[in-house]
Each structure stands twice: as structure tokens, then as C-alpha cells.
């Protein structure tokens, strides 16, 4: 049976609260303003205390456990309704409803083997409806499919242009708890989040289709990457953990963009020695692949050579000037100019002259020495100087029995 306080809280509380002003006027009629003010404060405190007591009484009247359920469509569900004191309890529900018990009990179970009502709101109640609690229940369904596409298919996708992506999530409930995220996956597999969207929680319980869109502007670095969207049903801590996620198919991105020359070391000036070989290689990034033209300093300005590499062997001074490369595709072109200065290497000439001077000096030295030697050693000798002189007196000297005479 319900206590007197419970009956009072349920049946009389609203009427009593609405009559509080009349009660204050009754007890303070004809009294001073100060007395009336004090009385109003006192009555206000009494009413507040009674309200807190009634709220506590209502809260403890029936207890549902668990108080919140998150159930997948078609799965079983169960919850208990209990009271501190034995009472007649029943469950009102479109599925699994239970009438009032024949006798007073403290607990009554509600159970459904296969939950198929999207808008179900089971309520536990006591005899006379003096106490009633509703079970908070969410029925969910994972999407049948998630797909991504272009609202208008680009043919081809061009750098810097804007395209509308569309993510379609089919047959999901509740759609208000759905979060859709767009991703880009580059050629190395790195995934980047582009945007996350969630529709307003408009209390739609039945399955719905959801369409989410995103404006996407590709760059040249996006060529070869992929786009996808991911649908996550976030049902809170009572729902499945981690929240279920379903990814879409992947869109391959083919981005067309104008050429950008990547010549190494770039557009520059260079010097080269006369007689060496000049080689200039023009390369560029572009989609479609670019073609190449070279404008040479010796050529007619209206004439270009269709090639990516320029090679000149045994380069001469006349080859000095600007060499301009043009990389071209249907989206545009890119140019790069290399200034070439042909210089003469004077070191070999100087070395040759020095060697010639040395040879000439050696020849002159040899000739001078030879002339001097002949004049000095051969030109001043006379035959008479080579013969012994004769003396007028002769001397005979005898040595050891032998005569020798000296003139």
C-alpha cells in the first residue's frame, strides 16, 4: 500500500503549491508589511522543504534497473522494476507488457525476446498509477550500406576547381546519433580527416537514409590519392563499445594540373669552357605528361626544338646566350631559362708559350756556347808554337854512359 505522504505528494502537491500565495495572504491579512514579509518567507521555506521531500519520495517510489537500455533491433531486452516496500506492480508496454501483480511484490521483470518496436516506451507503475517510472530505451540499427560519390562526376578533375562529394548512409537508426566523417588517403597510406558532420537530434526513431555533402578542392599533391566517408553510430556509454563504424567505398582521385618545371638545379646561370660538352635536361611535373620545347640563342625566335635534352659537343664562344625550356600540356605551360657563358681557357696557351720560350732559350744557349768554344779552343793555335825551340850552344851531357844533347 502507498504511504500517506506518497498519496499527498501525488494528489495534492500541485494544488497546495498553487495555493501558497492565498495561504500567505490569509495568515497575514491586516498585519504590518514586516509581519507579512516574515510570514511569506516562512511559508516559502515550508513549501520548498515539502517539495524536496516529495521529490525524494517519488524517486524512491519505484526504481528501474538498468534505467537506460540500448538495444539492437531484433535483439532481446530486459529490465527490472523494484520498490522498497511490497506493492502491486505492472509494466505497460507495446511489447512484453505485464499487468498488475495479484499480490504485492518488491520486484517485477520486463523482458522481450526480440525487440521490434522502434518507438517502444515501457513504463513500470503501481496500483492506481500513484507511482510510475518509464524505461529509457533506444533501439538502433546499423546501416545497410555507406557509399561515397561525386554529385556531378568530374571528367577530368582539375587542380583548383571545386567538386561536391556526397556520402549516402542507407537505412540507419537513430539517425540523430550518426556521425559521418570524410577522409583523404594519400599515396603513402596516410589518412587525413577532411570534415565531420552530424544531423540534429530530431527524435526520429525509425530507420532513415542520410545524405552528407562536402565541397572538395583538389591540389596537384592529391593526384593518386583516395577519398572515403565513414559512418559511426555513437549511442553513448550504454551502447556498443567501441561505437560501430562502417566505411564507404574509395574514390580514386585523378587530378589534372599544368606543368611545373623541376629542372635541377633550376633556372640558373652557368659558365662552361670552350671545347667542353654542354648538356641541359628539362623535366617537369604535369598531368597529362607535358611535352618539351627548347629555344636556343642561335635559333630563329619563331623556331623551337621539340626535345627535353639539349646537348652541344665542342662548344664554342658563339654558343653563349639564353637557353629557354618550355613544358606544355593542355592546362598550361611553364618556362625556365638558363644563361650559358662560354669562356676560353688560356692556361694551355700560356703553358705552350712558356714551353716554346724555354726551347728557344735552350737553342740559343747551345748555339752561343758552341760558337764560343770553337773560337776559344781552335781559332788561336799555331804550328810553330807546338815545336821545341833550338838554342845556339850545345851541351853534351853524359849520363850513365849515354850521351844526350840539348839544343
Task: Explain what the structure shows.
By secondary structure, the protein is an alpha+beta fold. The protein folds into 4 domains: 58 residues; 78 residues, Immunoglobulins (Immunoglobulin-like, Sandwich); 109 residues, Immunoglobulin-like (Sandwich); 86 residues, Immunoglobulin-like. 20% of the residues lie in helices and 39% in strands. It is built from 5 helices and 27 strands. Strands 12, 13, 15, 16 and 17 form a 5-stranded antiparallel β-sheet that branches. Strand 12 and strand 13 form a beta hairpin. Helix 1 crosses helix 4 and helix 3 runs antiparallel to helix 4. The longest helix has 31 residues. The termini are far apart. The N terminus and C terminus are likely disordered.
